[in-house]
Amino acid sequence: xxxxxxxxxxxxxxxxxxxxxxxxxxxxxxxxxxxxxxxxxxxxxxxxxxxxxxxxxxxxxxxxxxxxxxxxxxxxxxxxxxxxxxxxxxxxxxxxxxxxxxxxxxxxxxxxxxxxxxxxxxxxxxxxxxxxxxxxxxxxxxxxxxxxxxxxxxxxxxxxxxxxxxxxxxxxxxxxxxxxxxxxxxxxxxxxxxxxxxxxxxxxxxxxxxxxxxxxxxxxxxxxxxxxxxxxxxxxxxx
Length: 239
Known about the structure:
Blueprint: E1 5-10, E2 13-18, E3 21-22, E4 26-27, E5 30-36, E6 42-45, H1 52-61, E7 64-68, H2 78-84, E8 89-93, H3 94-99, E9 109-111, E10 126-130, E11 139-143, E12 148-151, H4 183-191, H5 196-207, E13 213-216, H6 226-233
Parallel strand pairs: 6-7, 7-8, 8-9, 12-13
Antiparallel strand pairs: 1-2, 2-5, 3-4, 5-6, 10-11, 11-12
């Protein structure tokens, strides 16, 4: 039985959640997100394998127009998505493009390399903010219609209960949780800031966005009061 949990979080926004263990021992879960665009086509943050169930649901939503990598480390499955959806634009951070192992994989855009004013085509519906001062070169996304923030390693919400809900594992790690409203998460995001001034700028940008929900790659979806959670995790950057 597949361990992928497929769910429509809100109208037109689907998540594909499954187990993932970082460094072989930390169960943080993995998640891809697909958004059906009002202008036609599908925008996909591709962070998990394109298994049979995932592909079937994405194909139901429409033709894939954008394949997105949200930071330097979530790039393992970009090639698989691009092979299946060859006409889609592949957009990633420059750090991910440099680290990807397939030299023949062509990118149509790269945060951190392109001019900051570059438009990729989805901006009428989805805003983006590139965190140049983050160690993983993260990108945050705002789906404006659903007031949903989509991100990878900017904010965790562990334990990853949904992502392990079809697994034999509980997804817990000795009771150690990285989640909003805890000192550990605040310490982690502070340590990942390699340029504190740039982080303060971009944290403020996201804080000023109009969102209530957060879909992280790692941990459970924060269904409401996401802005409050964001401001708590990043409060040391907002002083």
